[in-house]
Specification:
Strand content: 15-25%
Shape: globular
Largest sheet: 7 strands, mixed, barrel
Bound molecules: adenosine-5'-diphosphate, magnesium ion
Number of helices: 9
CATH class of the largest domain: Mainly Alpha
Strand order of the largest sheet: 1-4-8-9-7-6-5
Radius of gyration: 20 Å
Protein backbone atom coordinates (compact mmCIF):
# COMPACT_ATOMS: atom_id res chain seq x y z
CA UNK A 1 0.00 0.00 0.00
CA UNK A 2 2.71 2.47 0.93
CA UNK A 3 4.01 4.25 -2.13
CA UNK A 4 7.67 3.58 -2.81
CA UNK A 5 10.00 6.54 -3.17
CA UNK A 6 10.26 6.05 -6.94
CA UNK A 7 6.47 5.80 -7.33
CA UNK A 8 6.12 8.99 -5.36
CA UNK A 9 8.61 10.67 -7.62
CA UNK A 10 6.86 9.40 -10.77
CA UNK A 11 3.33 10.29 -9.63
CA UNK A 12 1.66 13.65 -10.05
CA UNK A 13 1.38 15.32 -6.66
CA UNK A 14 -2.15 16.63 -6.16
CA UNK A 15 -1.55 18.14 -2.76
CA UNK A 16 0.87 18.32 0.07
CA UNK A 17 -0.78 19.77 3.12
CA UNK A 18 -0.67 19.71 6.90
CA UNK A 19 -3.44 17.47 8.27
CA UNK A 20 -5.38 17.76 11.52
CA UNK A 21 -8.38 15.82 12.67
CA UNK A 22 -11.75 17.18 13.66
CA UNK A 23 -15.42 16.21 13.85
CA UNK A 24 -17.59 18.04 11.36
CA UNK A 25 -21.10 19.00 12.51
CA UNK A 26 -24.09 17.22 10.98
CA UNK A 27 -26.57 19.34 9.03
CA UNK A 28 -29.87 19.93 10.80
CA UNK A 29 -33.27 19.42 9.24
CA UNK A 30 -34.96 22.82 9.31
CA UNK A 31 -38.25 24.14 7.90
CA UNK A 32 -36.42 25.02 4.69
CA UNK A 33 -34.65 21.68 4.28
CA UNK A 34 -31.07 20.92 5.28
CA UNK A 35 -29.37 23.60 7.37
CA UNK A 36 -25.65 23.37 6.65
CA UNK A 37 -24.63 26.75 8.11
CA UNK A 38 -22.60 25.20 10.93
CA UNK A 39 -20.84 22.94 8.45
CA UNK A 40 -20.04 26.01 6.33
CA UNK A 41 -18.40 27.71 9.33
CA UNK A 42 -16.20 24.68 9.84
CA UNK A 43 -15.26 24.60 6.19
CA UNK A 44 -14.42 28.29 5.82
CA UNK A 45 -12.14 27.87 8.86
CA UNK A 46 -9.96 25.34 6.99
CA UNK A 47 -6.82 27.33 6.18
CA UNK A 48 -4.99 27.19 2.84
CA UNK A 49 -2.47 24.34 2.82
CA UNK A 50 -4.35 22.26 5.39
CA UNK A 51 -6.55 19.21 5.50
CA UNK A 52 -9.09 18.51 8.22
CA UNK A 53 -9.60 14.77 8.52
CA UNK A 54 -13.01 13.62 9.70
CA UNK A 55 -12.51 11.64 12.91
CA UNK A 56 -16.07 10.28 12.74
CA UNK A 57 -15.23 8.37 9.57
CA UNK A 58 -11.51 7.84 10.08
CA UNK A 59 -11.21 6.51 13.57
CA UNK A 60 -7.68 5.77 14.64
CA UNK A 61 -6.32 9.03 13.32
CA UNK A 62 -5.17 10.97 16.33
CA UNK A 63 -5.31 14.70 16.81
CA UNK A 64 -1.61 14.99 16.11
CA UNK A 65 -0.45 17.06 13.21
CA UNK A 66 0.34 14.94 10.20
CA UNK A 67 1.66 15.63 6.74
CA UNK A 68 -0.68 14.51 3.96
CA UNK A 69 0.67 13.95 0.48
CA UNK A 70 -1.78 13.06 -2.27
CA UNK A 71 -0.39 11.56 -5.45
CA UNK A 72 -2.63 11.06 -8.47
CA UNK A 73 -3.34 7.48 -9.58
CA UNK A 74 -4.42 8.00 -13.23
CA UNK A 75 -5.77 4.42 -13.55
CA UNK A 76 -8.45 5.10 -10.96
CA UNK A 77 -9.93 7.62 -13.36
CA UNK A 78 -10.92 5.02 -15.98
CA UNK A 79 -14.74 4.92 -16.38
CA UNK A 80 -14.93 7.95 -14.09
CA UNK A 81 -14.10 10.63 -16.65
CA UNK A 82 -17.64 12.05 -16.84
CA UNK A 83 -17.15 14.48 -14.00
CA UNK A 84 -18.20 18.10 -14.16
CA UNK A 85 -16.08 19.04 -11.16
CA UNK A 86 -12.82 17.40 -12.24
CA UNK A 87 -12.82 14.82 -9.47
CA UNK A 88 -9.28 13.47 -9.09
CA UNK A 89 -8.22 10.12 -7.64
CA UNK A 90 -5.06 9.32 -5.82
CA UNK A 91 -3.21 7.79 -2.98
CA UNK A 92 -2.93 9.79 0.20
CA UNK A 93 0.02 9.19 2.44
CA UNK A 94 -0.28 10.44 6.02
CA UNK A 95 2.99 10.76 7.85
CA UNK A 96 3.20 11.52 11.53
CA UNK A 97 6.22 11.45 13.83
CA UNK A 98 4.50 9.23 16.36
CA UNK A 99 2.33 7.00 14.22
CA UNK A 100 4.43 6.46 11.09
CA UNK A 101 2.84 6.21 7.66
CA UNK A 102 -0.73 5.37 6.68
CA UNK A 103 -1.82 5.13 3.04
CA UNK A 104 -5.38 5.49 1.79
CA UNK A 105 -6.92 5.74 -1.66
CA UNK A 106 -9.05 8.85 -2.01
CA UNK A 107 -11.25 10.81 -4.39
CA UNK A 108 -10.75 14.56 -4.28
CA UNK A 109 -13.64 16.75 -5.43
CA UNK A 110 -13.00 20.51 -5.66
CA UNK A 111 -16.05 22.64 -4.83
CA UNK A 112 -16.73 26.17 -3.69
CA UNK A 113 -17.24 26.49 0.05
CA UNK A 114 -21.02 26.84 0.20
CA UNK A 115 -21.64 24.03 -2.30
CA UNK A 116 -19.11 21.92 -0.42
CA UNK A 117 -20.86 22.53 2.90
CA UNK A 118 -24.09 21.20 1.41
CA UNK A 119 -22.55 18.26 -0.43
CA UNK A 120 -20.26 17.26 2.42
CA UNK A 121 -23.14 17.72 4.88
CA UNK A 122 -25.50 15.42 2.98
CA UNK A 123 -22.68 12.90 2.48
CA UNK A 124 -22.11 12.97 6.25
CA UNK A 125 -25.81 12.39 6.98
CA UNK A 126 -26.00 9.40 4.66
CA UNK A 127 -22.67 7.93 5.74
CA UNK A 128 -23.73 8.08 9.38
CA UNK A 129 -26.90 6.13 8.69
CA UNK A 130 -29.35 9.04 9.05
CA UNK A 131 -31.07 7.94 5.85
CA UNK A 132 -31.52 4.26 6.74
CA UNK A 133 -30.01 1.75 4.30
CA UNK A 134 -28.70 4.47 1.96
CA UNK A 135 -25.05 4.35 0.99
CA UNK A 136 -22.47 6.80 -0.22
CA UNK A 137 -18.68 7.02 -0.27
CA UNK A 138 -17.18 7.54 3.15
CA UNK A 139 -16.42 11.24 3.70
CA UNK A 140 -12.96 11.57 5.18
CA UNK A 141 -12.19 15.25 5.21
CA UNK A 142 -11.95 18.68 3.67
CA UNK A 143 -8.76 20.16 2.27
CA UNK A 144 -7.92 23.66 1.14
CA UNK A 145 -5.24 24.12 -1.48
CA UNK A 146 -2.72 26.96 -1.32
CA UNK A 147 -4.75 28.90 -3.93
CA UNK A 148 -7.79 28.86 -1.63
CA UNK A 149 -9.76 26.16 -3.48
CA UNK A 150 -11.50 23.76 -1.15
CA UNK A 151 -12.07 20.07 -1.91
CA UNK A 152 -13.85 17.21 -0.22
CA UNK A 153 -12.16 13.87 0.20
CA UNK A 154 -13.95 10.54 0.11
CA UNK A 155 -12.55 7.07 0.49
CA UNK A 156 -11.96 5.65 -2.98
CA UNK A 157 -13.72 2.38 -3.86
CA UNK A 158 -12.25 0.55 -6.78
CA UNK A 159 -14.70 -2.02 -8.21
CA UNK A 160 -17.70 0.27 -8.50
CA UNK A 161 -18.97 1.59 -11.84
CA UNK A 162 -21.53 4.28 -12.43
CA UNK A 163 -24.84 3.01 -13.85
CA UNK A 164 -24.34 4.86 -17.16
CA UNK A 165 -21.14 2.84 -17.67
CA UNK A 166 -23.00 -0.37 -16.96
CA UNK A 167 -25.78 0.46 -19.43
CA UNK A 168 -23.25 1.78 -21.97
CA UNK A 169 -20.96 -1.22 -21.88
CA UNK A 170 -21.70 -3.22 -25.04
CA UNK A 171 -20.50 -6.47 -23.48
CA UNK A 172 -22.87 -6.05 -20.60
CA UNK A 173 -25.86 -4.67 -22.43
CA UNK A 174 -26.53 -8.03 -24.15
CA UNK A 175 -26.69 -9.65 -20.80
CA UNK A 176 -30.25 -9.08 -19.79
CA UNK A 177 -29.39 -10.36 -16.36
CA UNK A 178 -26.89 -7.56 -15.63
CA UNK A 179 -29.13 -4.83 -16.96
CA UNK A 180 -32.07 -6.17 -15.00
CA UNK A 181 -30.03 -6.43 -11.82
CA UNK A 182 -28.79 -2.87 -12.32
CA UNK A 183 -32.36 -1.61 -12.87
CA UNK A 184 -33.55 -3.52 -9.83
CA UNK A 185 -30.81 -1.89 -7.73
CA UNK A 186 -31.73 1.58 -9.03
CA UNK A 187 -35.38 1.03 -8.08
CA UNK A 188 -34.49 -0.19 -4.61
CA UNK A 189 -31.98 2.63 -4.05
CA UNK A 190 -34.27 5.45 -5.18
CA UNK A 191 -37.13 4.07 -3.08
CA UNK A 192 -34.86 3.77 -0.03
CA UNK A 193 -33.68 7.37 -0.42
CA UNK A 194 -37.24 8.62 -0.95
CA UNK A 195 -38.68 6.65 1.96
CA UNK A 196 -35.93 8.23 4.11
CA UNK A 197 -37.04 11.75 3.07
CA UNK A 198 -34.12 12.28 0.71
CA UNK A 199 -34.52 13.81 -2.77
CA UNK A 200 -31.59 13.55 -5.14
CA UNK A 201 -32.73 15.99 -7.86
CA UNK A 202 -29.61 15.20 -9.97
CA UNK A 203 -30.71 11.56 -10.00
CA UNK A 204 -29.01 10.67 -13.29
CA UNK A 205 -27.56 7.22 -14.00
CA UNK A 206 -23.98 8.44 -13.66
CA UNK A 207 -24.59 9.51 -10.05
CA UNK A 208 -25.46 5.98 -8.98
CA UNK A 209 -22.51 3.72 -8.55
CA UNK A 210 -22.55 -0.06 -8.23
CA UNK A 211 -20.25 -3.05 -8.27
CA UNK A 212 -21.78 -5.37 -10.90
CA UNK A 213 -19.67 -8.32 -9.78
CA UNK A 214 -21.53 -8.57 -6.47
CA UNK A 215 -23.39 -11.87 -6.52
CA UNK A 216 -27.01 -11.05 -5.89
CA UNK A 217 -27.63 -7.45 -5.25
CA UNK A 218 -24.92 -5.31 -3.71
CA UNK A 219 -25.31 -1.77 -2.54
CA UNK A 220 -25.63 1.21 -4.82
CA UNK A 221 -23.62 4.21 -3.71
CA UNK A 222 -25.24 7.55 -4.33
CA UNK A 223 -22.99 10.49 -5.24
CA UNK A 224 -23.31 14.15 -6.12
CA UNK A 225 -25.58 15.83 -3.59
CA UNK A 226 -25.14 19.40 -4.77
CA UNK A 227 -28.87 19.72 -5.44
CA UNK A 228 -30.12 17.10 -2.99
CA UNK A 229 -32.92 18.06 -0.64
CA UNK A 230 -35.34 16.65 1.84
CA UNK A 231 -39.10 16.09 1.73
CA UNK A 232 -39.54 16.11 5.50
CA UNK A 233 -41.17 19.57 5.52
CA UNK A 234 -43.33 19.02 2.42
CA UNK A 235 -46.97 18.02 2.07
CA UNK A 236 -47.59 14.47 0.93
CA UNK A 237 -48.60 15.61 -2.57
CA UNK A 238 -45.61 17.86 -2.93
CA UNK A 239 -43.25 15.11 -1.77
CA UNK A 240 -44.80 12.67 -4.22
CA UNK A 241 -44.43 15.13 -7.12
CA UNK A 242 -40.76 15.62 -6.27
CA UNK A 243 -40.19 11.85 -6.11
CA UNK A 244 -41.75 11.56 -9.57
CA UNK A 245 -39.22 14.25 -10.59
CA UNK A 246 -36.28 12.09 -9.44
CA UNK A 247 -37.65 9.04 -11.26
CA UNK A 248 -38.25 11.10 -14.44
CA UNK A 249 -34.66 12.38 -14.31
CA UNK A 250 -33.27 8.87 -13.99
CA UNK A 251 -35.40 7.51 -16.84
CA UNK A 252 -34.52 10.45 -19.12
CA UNK A 253 -30.82 9.97 -18.32
CA UNK A 254 -30.92 6.31 -19.31
CA UNK A 255 -32.68 7.11 -22.61
CA UNK A 256 -30.19 9.96 -23.04
CA UNK A 257 -27.49 7.30 -23.37
CA UNK A 258 -28.88 6.52 -26.84
CA UNK A 259 -27.58 9.91 -27.94
CA UNK A 260 -24.04 8.87 -27.10
CA UNK A 261 -24.33 5.68 -29.16
CA UNK A 262 -25.61 3.24 -26.57
CA UNK A 263 -27.99 0.70 -28.04
CA UNK A 264 -30.49 0.08 -25.31
CA UNK A 265 -32.38 -3.20 -25.63
CA UNK A 266 -35.60 -3.16 -27.67
CA UNK A 267 -37.73 -3.82 -24.63
CA UNK A 268 -35.89 -1.39 -22.35
CA UNK A 269 -39.12 0.48 -21.60
CA UNK A 270 -40.82 -2.73 -20.50
CA UNK A 271 -37.87 -3.58 -18.26
CA UNK A 272 -37.73 -0.09 -16.78
CA UNK A 273 -41.30 -0.58 -15.59
CA UNK A 274 -41.27 -4.29 -14.81
CA UNK A 275 -37.93 -4.33 -13.04
CA UNK A 276 -37.12 -0.80 -11.84
CA UNK A 277 -40.74 0.23 -11.26
CA UNK A 278 -41.71 -2.93 -9.37
CA UNK A 279 -38.55 -2.81 -7.24
CA UNK A 280 -39.20 0.86 -6.42
CA UNK A 281 -42.83 0.34 -5.47
CA UNK A 282 -42.29 -2.69 -3.25
CA UNK A 283 -39.26 -1.21 -1.48
CA UNK A 284 -41.01 2.10 -0.80
CA UNK A 285 -44.08 0.31 0.55
CA UNK A 286 -41.92 -1.92 2.73
CA UNK A 287 -40.23 1.06 4.43
CA UNK A 288 -42.78 3.87 4.38
CA UNK A 289 -46.17 2.31 3.59
CA UNK A 290 -48.61 3.60 0.98
CA UNK A 291 -48.67 7.32 1.78
CA UNK A 292 -47.06 9.38 -0.99
CA UNK A 293 -46.03 6.29 -2.93
CA UNK A 294 -45.19 6.33 -6.65
CA UNK A 295 -46.41 3.02 -8.09
CA UNK A 296 -45.03 0.90 -10.93
CA UNK A 297 -48.07 2.01 -12.95
CA UNK A 298 -47.09 5.68 -12.39
CA UNK A 299 -43.56 4.77 -13.45
CA UNK A 300 -44.91 3.11 -16.63
CA UNK A 301 -46.53 6.39 -17.61
CA UNK A 302 -43.29 8.34 -16.97
CA UNK A 303 -41.52 5.81 -19.21
CA UNK A 304 -44.17 6.20 -21.92
CA UNK A 305 -43.70 9.98 -21.89
CA UNK A 306 -39.91 9.86 -22.02
CA UNK A 307 -38.53 10.66 -25.45
CA UNK A 308 -36.49 7.92 -27.17
CA UNK A 309 -34.51 8.25 -30.35
CA UNK A 310 -36.74 7.39 -33.35
N1 LIG B 1 -14.76 7.81 -3.55
C1 LIG B 1 -14.95 7.41 -4.81
N2 LIG B 1 -14.59 6.16 -5.21
C2 LIG B 1 -14.80 5.73 -6.48
N3 LIG B 1 -15.35 6.49 -7.44
C3 LIG B 1 -15.73 7.75 -7.10
C4 LIG B 1 -15.55 8.28 -5.78
N4 LIG B 1 -16.04 9.56 -5.75
C5 LIG B 1 -16.48 9.81 -7.00
N5 LIG B 1 -16.31 8.74 -7.81
C6 LIG B 1 -16.65 8.61 -9.25
O1 LIG B 1 -16.42 9.84 -9.90
C7 LIG B 1 -17.56 10.25 -10.63
C8 LIG B 1 -17.74 11.75 -10.45
O2 LIG B 1 -18.05 12.04 -9.10
P1 LIG B 1 -19.27 13.01 -8.72
O3 LIG B 1 -19.32 13.13 -7.26
O4 LIG B 1 -20.50 12.56 -9.45
O5 LIG B 1 -18.73 14.40 -9.30
P2 LIG B 1 -19.26 15.38 -10.46
O6 LIG B 1 -20.10 16.41 -9.78
O7 LIG B 1 -18.03 15.96 -11.01
O8 LIG B 1 -20.06 14.55 -11.43
C9 LIG B 1 -18.75 9.42 -10.09
O9 LIG B 1 -19.58 8.97 -11.11
C10 LIG B 1 -18.11 8.24 -9.42
O10 LIG B 1 -18.15 7.12 -10.30
MG1 LIG C 1 -21.72 13.29 -10.99
Amino acid sequence: MILSKSAREAGIPLAEVAAYSTIFPMPRRSDEGFDTSEMLQHITAVQPGTLKLDRRFLPGISELTTLAEIIEVPDHKKTREASKHFVAFGQMLLTSKDEGETALHVALKPLDDSVLAHEYGVTNLIASGEVPYCNTFRPIGVARMYDGQAAMLTMYRHPVRSMDNILLNPELIDEQEIVDRALDRVGVTLATAHAGDLLLVDSVARNMVWDPSTKHSGNVFLVDFEEAGTTHQMTMDEARTRRIGDLTTFIASSYGLEKVGCELPEDFDVRLTAVMGEAYESRFRQIAGNAGIVTATDIASIVAQSPRLP
